[in-house]
Amino acid sequence: MSGVEQWLGDVATAALVGSARREPPPIPAALGVVTDDEGHAPEHRLLASAALADAVTRGGAGLQAAGGPTHDAPPETREACSEAAAQLVHLLLLQPPVSMATRDELVVEWLRLAEAAGQRAPFAVLPALLEFAAPRPSVARALGGVIGERGAWLVGLNAAWSATLDADRTAPVGSGGGDDWTVQWSTMATAEATAAFAAGRRTSPAAARALLEAEWDTVSAKVRGEAVVALRHGISAADEPLLERALDDRAKTVREAAAGVLSLLPASDRADRMAARLRGLVRVRGTLSRHLEVEVPDPPDDAAVRDGMTPPAKGGGPPPTVWLAQVVRGAPLSTWTEITGRSVAATLKMVRDKDVLASLVEAVLDRRDAAWALACVEHGVPDPRLVWLLPQEKRTDLLVSWVARPPAGRDLGRLLVEVPRPWPDELSRVVLGRLRGEGATTSLARAAAPLLPVALSPSLAPAVTALLEQVPADATHLRRALTETLQLHAFRTSLTEAFR
Amino acid sequence: MTRWTPSQVTEAAPDAASLAAGRKLAMPGPWRDTGCNDVLVWGQCQGSGKTPYQVSVDLTGPAYRCSCPSRKFPCKHAIALLMLWSEGVLDESGQVAAFAEEWATQRADKAAAPAKAAEKPTDPAARAKRIEQRLARMDAGVEDFRLWLADLVRSGLAAARAQPYAFWDNAAARLVDAQLPALAERVREAGSQIHARTDWTEHLLAEVGRWWTITCAWQARETLGVDEMAEVRVAVGWAQSSEEVRDGDVRPGPWTVLGAHRSDDGRLQEQRTWLAHADGEVVAVLDFAGYGQALAVPQLSGAQLDVELSRYPGHAPRRALFRNPPAGAESVTGLPGRTSLASVHAAAAASLGGAPWRDRHPAPLADVRVVGEGDHWQVSDASGSLPIMTGAPIWTLLALGGGAPVDVFGEIESGAFRPLSVWLDDRVVGL
């Protein structure tokens, strides 16, 4: 057939440059076409050849060779979810009946329910589910075994999915319970070693500490520094010797990291040393001994610098208030009550200096000390982070009282965003109460409305329905939020039923 | 009329936004005066305004009517109403609401009007004269097009590529004037492909060859049989009126829905539904809708329709139309006419003999695997493999099959496979 192939090429060339410049080639006899070409103009012969070439090319094209064998997806170990559950996830992914913001949460909830029931998503929905999960880490983490063997097989075939999903789905190195990672740790690349250590520390703090002690001199300063930072998780007194050693490290980053982590240990030797420094600066003053006078410290000596304080420099050293802040953050909170001999609340009242109070608040946050946090909140410190250190009941009580009568200087909207969902019923009720009538257009309403669908528990549906009737027609954002809340509750109910 | 399934309602929606909006309205709350009978579904929906919107749907069209200002057809109210109907919550016993009845009557009158016009005794002589005039115009147009083609290849395709789009558009416009719209469409399409494809020389040469074949066939039409002539008429765009076809070559069911494809080029939406008869005959039903109009409700793949099809003349696979609304959808899971890639490929090649300008062939493939990686996938069986068209829902295909051999129905077009449905042991999934 090479004659025909040659002819096809010649036809293409003649057509490209034009029959005026290139005579069309005669049709090969091998094709067995009867023609009366002789009397026709070259362009007509070329057109006829083009027609014939097209028919020959298409009619004569063969199939490609059979594709190589692929590995089939392994058989499933889980049952597929019910038809109703399949329809719900299909709906969520392709035609969400809720706003985009709440859709992610619902998909995650669907995945959790399926995981809990030991079921898997139906095959047909897998592409949409994986496509949806790939750019959304929260959804990707919830996939678990719900995508089944088929889903894992698909991810393996799709580079875009495996790039993001495999990282989120496969458990991080070292969390599997084995000690494999400890063997290779000292030879890993920096990023890998850092991640492995952080993961290992979470599962087995003691083993991670022992490894870091053993490999202290073999790993890079960068890895040492990151590893020291990772010691935050599961920190205990047993970590202190290693951290003390880190205070003498060659690398500045490692020393700073160690000082920072040691601040979290109120009973450490470093804390004692800081306490001694603090005692030298604080005096009880006033005729009724009602306030504390705090002096700024002298430039730190070598021992203080070893403890993480900023070294003095000729001419342009840091202002002494920086050193004061470092001492306050480093000393145990109990130092203060020891000095005053009074309760936490009373002691706080005696602190008049704003900067000292701010450093003290940071120390409370470092230590996650609930008693001090409560005292600070009641003292009127507006820092919202303190609220999250309170015991849950206390926190709810406070939020309820604040919603009922908003205190000045507190951003209630921001606080509400961070309350774990669903909200406690007590809080939900007081928020709904404040949205009635005039309340529908307040800043609280604007801040709370987008949260309602996910924050209110389904048991409050009657209250939501009742409120919806009292909301003015022009408060559209609130009306929409309440309507969506009801829809979402209905959807949630059907979700739970689908997995029953 | 059989009640639609939820997925049929879904398919009727013009876009995802309307569907989502419709779903939100698909609860009894805002509705009153709802009801349905065999052909009509109606209801009033309380919107944001004072007067509720009056919504009526004629299921036979389907046609939609709503007093809301939306320019989408069907609007969200109609979709919501259909959803409620599909769930079976509408009253089937009541009196037709006045607004729905009025609309239905208007529609019936309108539909009857052209029929009446058609019944007017036509003057055979006048009709023959009209056809003669049309043929004369087409003949002149074909002759003109042949001259244009000869000029094109005389100066060469490389020179043609340097021409502006107006060069192709003008040629197409002259073909439209000569009542050769299908040829015109091909020329316009080639004009835009010439800069879009890397293989433009092969593509354009093949197209030019097909145009030439069409003109030759047209000029030799005295010698053609009925079926051949029908193919030529399709190729030039001389439509056969559906009235002519409707009572012509009728074949009763059951017909099994093999799969369907929808396309939308921005101006025209097309829906192509492939159906098979028990003896293996395969036909395609085409539906068209302009911008903003609704296409006919798609039939579900695997449904066995008890319906009469009127077939257009032409070579297999022939075009057909539903003579009566399809009813009684039992479903089957065995793919009719399932066969190897090689035999489908051979059949596609053989069909070129009847109409060399046709480039689409149905492909009921038995036990094919989907193989490949990245952006390149093929369907494959022991007899060979064929690339899968780019843009095909490859991941759904893979997810359903899991790499194992599975029956797939699709179309072969320009040497590539477009999957349309997957036939599993227990169900058929349209893609």
Automatic annotation (TrEMBL), chain A:
Pfam families with a match to the protein in the record: DUF5691 (PF18944)
Region described as Disordered: spans on this chain: 297-319
Superkingdom as given in the UniProt entry: Bacteria
Name under which the protein is recorded: Uncharacterized protein
Organism of this sequence: Nocardioides alpinus
From TrEMBL, chain B:
Family matches, as InterPro entries: Znf_SWIM
Superkingdom: Bacteria
UniProt keyword list: Metal-binding, Zinc, Zinc-finger
Domain SWIM-type: 53-86
PROSITE patterns: ZF_SWIM
One Pfam entry name: SWIM
GO molecular function, one term: zinc ion binding
Protein's UniProt name: SWIM zinc finger
